[in-house]
Amino acid sequence: MNKKINCLWRIFFISALLLSCLTIKAQSDVKIDLSLKQANFKSFLTEIESRTDYRFIYDGLDISNLPKITVNYKNTSLDKILAEELPSFNINYQINGNQIVLIIGTSPVSRTDESLTVKGVVTGEAGIPVIGVNVILKGTTIGTIVDVDGNYAITIPQGTNNPVLVFSYLGYQTQETAVNKRATINMIMGEDEVLLSEIVVVGYGVVKKSDATGALDIIKSEDFNKGTVSSPEMLLNGHIAGVQITPGSGQPGANTSVRIRGVNSISASSEPLYVIDGVPIDNSRTSSSVGGDAALSNMSVNPLSMISPSDIESMTVLKDASATAIYGSRGANGVIIITTKGGKDGVRAVNYSSTLGVSAVANKIDVLSANEFRNYVAGANKDVSTDWQDAIFRTTLTQDHNITFSNGTKNTSYRASLSMSDQPGIILSIGLRRYSLRLNAIHKMFEDRLALAVNAIIPAMSSKTYWSSNPVELRVG
């Protein structure tokens, strides 16, 4: 009886051992889809863990300073992925059960015993061949150029130690990979985010700043003038050569005169054209008439005051004939292109900002006192002594409040903002109060071939002038 029990135990043990080995083999042969764009090495490991039952162990291995990794595998075994990607980081691996142990490589000298021809295909992140990529054997002048189909072939001379191929192209990040006696090396080129950020908005599209041929200047939100401003034009003041910005009066929200390269007409307007998120805006001012006073009837309210400065991402100024070529006669005085902020991929945020400021008269006019005036003017009223400057001037508190909600994924992003600005004037009964609700959203479909965008704003502005205690209401839906 005991012999039968021992025999059964041995059969059970052997079966369990074989089943365990088969399970490990099956797991190592598991095929997964893996696509990453300029991700850190830890994200590479995390994505594999989320798609398999394996867990990585890398105690004593510093992965925080490893280079970014870009991969694009479809239905590929885990063994093949690790075998192709880890050697370029000088990392070896061992599979123990459901654990993968990463070990620092010993960096052995890899020598080609005979000449080796390496072939492959170079594509972008979307899988489209990248034409004209330079493929060079590092440390030598041996190289080739990728053809129209994305193919390349380069010969490694006999006796080359640790050959490394360098892939480079304008607008893409330079990639390096060790040959390791591989005859086929395919490369995915990642876009250079630094170069892509150096673009300017021109007309109905964008162009790299280095490729722009016209006279233009761009200013980003981090370079705007700080403090409380009632109109977006004041954000540019003093930053761009050839652009003169002059407030029409001290009234909050009043007309601001903008001249790009001087006055272009004697009788017609010299104001530039404003384009907000691709939509041209009528830059004529909203006049407020006052009967019986020609001077005051020329006062006007700036409609751009309804845009909250905190919603602006960048402003581009087109100065020369290129503005006329794009927008016609409306751009003859130059064009100011305003781009508002939107959501960013992978960034979910709720932000609140507030600005407080104090306004007061810097210097009062030195005039005669009441007694001095009576001595100077015969028959002056002797019963009244009023300093009219003290009577009409005041010290005010200006405040701006902004709250934003933003989120974004690869295909969809949005940003919603609510802004409130209260800017009383230093003269009694003068002031500007503005409320603004803005929504910017975009959704991309069909592999970025179609994009649906919404740029909506609901502003409400109340402006009080010093000739009337009744506010002038400007509302746009």
Brief descriptors of the model:
39% strand, 477 residues, six-stranded antiparallel β-sheet, 29 strands
Descriptive report:
This protein has 477 residues and is of the alpha+beta class. The protein contains eight helices and 29 strands. A six-stranded antiparallel sheet has the order 24-25-26-27-28-29, with no helix packed on it. A five-stranded mixed sheet has the order 15-22-23-18-19, with no helix packed on it. The protein has a four-stranded antiparallel sheet with strand order 8-7-10-11, with no helix packed on it. Strand 10 and strand 11 form a beta hairpin. The longest helix has 27 residues. The chain is elongated, with a radius of gyration of 35 Å.
Count the helices. How many? 8
Shape: elongated
Unreliable segments of 5+ consecutive residues: 18-28, 285-299, 471-477
Number of strands: 29
How would you briefly describe this protein structure?
The protein has helices spanning 2-28, 41-51, 78-85, 193-197, 294-297, 321-327, 370-376, 388-392; strands at 31-39, 55-57, 69-77, 91-96, 99-104, 116-124, 134-137, 143-145, 151-156, 164-168, 175-178, 187-189, 199-202, 205-208, 216-220, 243-247, 256-260, 273-276, 279-281, 286-287, 300-301, 312-318, 335-340, 349-359, 396-408, 412-424, 431-445, 450-464, 472-475. With 477 residues, it is α+β, with helices and mostly antiparallel strands. The N and C termini lie far apart (92 Å).
